[in-house]
Amino acid sequence: MSDEIQASLRIKELKELIRFHDRQYYILNTPQITDFDYDHLMKELEALEAGFPSLVTPDSPTQRVGQDLTKDFPAYKHRFPMLSLANTYNIEELYDFDRRVREILGESTLPEYVVEYKIDGVSISLTYKNGFLTIAATRGDGEMGEVVTANIKTIRSIPLVLDKAIVEKYGLAEFEVRGEIFMEIAEFRKINEERASRMEKLFANPRNFASGSIKLQDPKITATRPLTIFTYYLLSEQPGLRSQSESLALLAELGFKVNPLYKVCSSISEVITVLQEFEEMRDTLPYEIDGAVIKVNNFQHQRQLGFIAKSPRWATAYKFKAKQAQTTLNAITWQVGRTGAITPVAELEPVILAGSQISRATLHNMDEIRRKDIRVGDTVILEKGGDVIPKVVDFVKELRQAGSIEVPVPETCPVCSGIVYRSLEEAAMYCQNSECPAQVKGRIEHFASRAAMDIEGLGEALVEQFVERGVVVTYADIYDLHLHKEELITWERFGAKSIDNLLRAIEESKQRPFYRVLFGLGIRYVGIGAARKLAAHFKSIDTLMNASTEELLQVHEIGESISNSVRAFFSNDHNIHLIGRLKDQGLQFVDMQAGASANPEFSGKTFVLTGTLQRFSRDEAGEKIRQLGGKVTSSVSKKTDVVIAGESAGSKLDKARELGIAIWDEESFETRLKEIE
């Protein structure tokens, strides 16, 4: 037997051993060997693979940590949208949820429910093909996420390869797993204690730390962070699974980590009893939770219930009562945002709340301070429930000291000493100086943020320097920074390489689509969702600028507040001037799909893609359909016009036949595209 064959056999044996021990340690929490023995197995595998590089495979445990740095997290369109859940906050709302479910299913149907803890972590989608992890993507906005596969592979509780026999047993050629990545409280505190001992800035909370870790440029750093996962949903076009509880059991059988603290309930009354038990246990859990999720157990019932807007009718999130803590209010400072809004911030004696060390909290506005009679020196009550930002909810009356100080209303802007304006219709106060440095910084930071222009490296600290030195006063000035290159290189902590990287990122940002540019402009009330709708409807900035209030209100989900704000923004000559500069600098102010001509075979029709396409990816096929005026959805219904079926098409194809829906194979789809071209 040759050396290579012997090495191949031993490598196979080592990989199976290491996967077994990974499962025992990271998933089942029942380690079978010592760390020393585990390290010995890993080192032996590394040595053999170094001696025989041709035997290294992507699924090897040694390949969990990639060697390449990346700044690129490609956009990823979810095959099945990652929907958000509607929230319930009390028992009455749970009864309403149950009533709506039974009304749709029929009063004779008694639905089962599954109750699971709602982990306060980061949602992730994992796609497996033929038993191998191929793509890991963030939730993003539910429709579009980002590919973070290299970093996710470093998390040892996520299997890279699955048991072939189990995969084949259930016919899972391709499927998707949803889960929540998180960090246990004890691990998070340990990391912060170590950082405190080195006088380094502390991380805010486990959730933010986990979120930041999966977007690091260097997977080797991610690998050092003790992240783990609970998986909670398996999506596959292969029929067979009948319920959520069966799905959880199959996930565990496949080797995924599933939170064992879930309950199947036969009635909403039983659900409420379980929720009370869950809430009593929350302080004993090793991880942060912010409530529980209630799902209709039967998958056929889930399909019957369907969806409303971006939430399923068959599930709801129940929020537990917010956690509270007491501490001293040392001072109140005033913060000026990009819109000029002046908001009070409580400066607090640091205290631990819901796994985070809190030293600042929002006080909302002056009306709230007066209504609650909160004063400097008070012992205040902090709350942090479903909100990420902690808030001051009250003060402890019996602990008020005689020397407590009432908070004065600011007469001028705390940043620029400009005039403060307060509308009779709003509780907020505003600095009227549009050139206020705080507003300028806020607008530029927003413009450069990940959701907008995503200019890598142009963060808060750098923006502050640029604004204070007068190099950048508006976001249009960002695209003139190349004219200051020689000056920038002379600044402390700057160098030719860092400046080149920044200028390259600025140049790359010119390719961002119209809706992200529109969002980046910072129009009040226009979030990323509204920007996407406005861009898709009006197709160009020129059409949008000239739109009347009535035309704006015709856009789905655009109300009076947004339409009035858009009209006000485009009535400002300064804003029009900035847009003109940005146009000249090459930014995208036209919806790139606007030029695609509609086609009668596609325009206005609803398509569903199923099975495996050989000539197109799902994203490519969907994009071509949309460019020709069609719409792509994930489920087959009476409203579906065409089903495009690739190889191994399953239940969707069967349903299309039952409903008499037109079916195209891939060749037919491609032929139609060529005829149009």
User: How many β-strand runs?
Assistant: 24
Query: Strand share of the residues?
Result: 15-25%
CATH-derived architecture of the largest domain: 2-Layer Sandwich
CATH C-level name of the largest domain: Alpha Beta
Major sheet: size, sense and barrel closure?
7 strands, antiparallel
Q: Give helix % range.
A: 25-40%
Describe the protein:
The protein is of the alpha+beta class. The protein folds into 6 domains: 3-63, Helix Hairpins (Orthogonal Bundle); 87-318, DNA ligase/mRNA capping enzyme (D-amino Acid Aminotransferase, Chain A, domain 1); 323-419, Nucleic acid-binding proteins (OB fold (Dihydrolipoamide Acetyltransferase, E2P), Beta Barrel); 437-511, Orthogonal Bundle (DNA polymerase, domain 1); 514-584, 5' to 3' exonuclease, C-terminal subdomain (DNA polymerase, domain 1, Orthogonal Bundle); 606-676, BRCT domain (Rossmann fold), CATH 3.40.50. The chain contains 25 helices and 24 strands. The strands form 6 sheets. Strands 14, 15, 16, 17, 18, 19 and 20 form a 7-stranded antiparallel sheet that branches. Strands 2-13-10-3-9 form a 5-stranded mixed sheet. Strands 5-4-7-8 form a 4-stranded antiparallel sheet. A hairpin with a 4-residue loop joins strand 14 (323-336) and strand 15. Helix 1 (3-27) runs antiparallel to helix 2 (35-51), helix 13 (437-448) crosses helix 14 (460-468) and helix 17 (514-520) packs across helix 18 (528-538). The model has no long low-confidence stretch (mean pLDDT 86).
